[in-house]
Amino acid sequence: MELGRGPRGAAAASEIKGRRENQISYLKISKLALAFAIIHSKPPGKSSKEYTEYLARTVSEQDFGWKWKVEVLEAEVLRLRQELLLNRISPRFCLENRKQDASAETHLVRESINPTSYLSQLEDSGCDVFNDSAFDSLGIASDFHQSEQNVNTSKHWLERVPPLNLCHTSKEQSLTAPVHFLQCLLEIRKLSEGGILQADFSELESDSFTICNSVSQLLDGLTFFYNSPKFPAPSFVTEGVCVLLSLITDTKLSNHVLKKCFKKLEEFKKNLIQIILRNTSVNRFQALHSVSETLGLLGRNNILRNSLISLLLSRIRQFAEQLLQAHQAQSVYDITQYENIFLLCMILEQLLQNETEESNISSLDYGKEKIKFLKNLDQVILHLSDEFPLFSLYLWRVSVLLNSGQMQID
Hints:
Blueprint: H1 6-41, H2 48-89, H3 91-111, H4 115-124, H5 141-151, H6 154-157, H7 171-193, H8 203-206, H9 208-227, H10 235-249, H11 253-278, H12 285-298, H13 302-328, H14 335-357, H15 367-374, H16 377-384, H17 389-409
């Protein structure tokens, strides 16, 4: 007998229907009772609507306060898990960390008599990640090389990030906390390779939550600051990019990061592409160039490069089709997005050139997008070349690089 048929099935269906009707009736009664309560309790001089809106705002603010406190506590739990994981990977490293913390606290007490002297030494230490440093006109490329030298300095990495303060948390702290943890991992990796420390990186397999959440927090922080760029750019943003690049290029750590955080990295790349396309501010090109530099640096990794090429091919093809439709219909098109698309074209061209120079045959990984991009491309270029010659030229140059890669595979 099929479910729902027969005496028992009919009785069960009737019971479920009755429960739903009771729930709907209870909800209506509750709403009505709440409305009466609001009307009876409203203060004089206020309408029921105004009092209802006031109560709604009050409850919303309370919910926001609790959510904020929960986020802060979750961040503190993650920090403690990070310390525990570092201790499990290399106890000796954490012991040295505590020694430096103790000496730093002693030094701070001694210098408290002369705070000016202490502050001047702090400024000259090169370890304050909260100081701002300007991006150069070429984005973060030169800062990246400079920060690589800082990354090799264990003194900088052994600074201890203090526990989160419930009253003074900030977006800067939410970014510098994962940066510090990931820098420590890189330092342990370097010291263990040199035989200075003994480290067991198999612990990363048993605690994937900590590494995944740390990388996720880093990527979310970078996305936030790229969405709201500041000039001069904060040094901790450049520091975060350098740490990310070091992670994905390290021979031992990259497997853990790419395997466990690949989806998050894909989301990060998509977000950066959208930031480039959607930015409409007047003085946007310096900020967008910094974002494009980050995308280009991520493309140095072979695994990330293939997926990034696929994303860029797809987005440029979609824009070319939209532009062709607007041109044929003699309708308006997004001039800002047209200006921004050239940054994506330049990134794509550079990535394809790198593949050609390296005789890389990994284009099979983005073969579907390549076929879609090249399909009817000649007709698209023909129709757009008179009105949009520069964009048509970029499309043609990309097609040449894609075809030259195909010739090498053949």
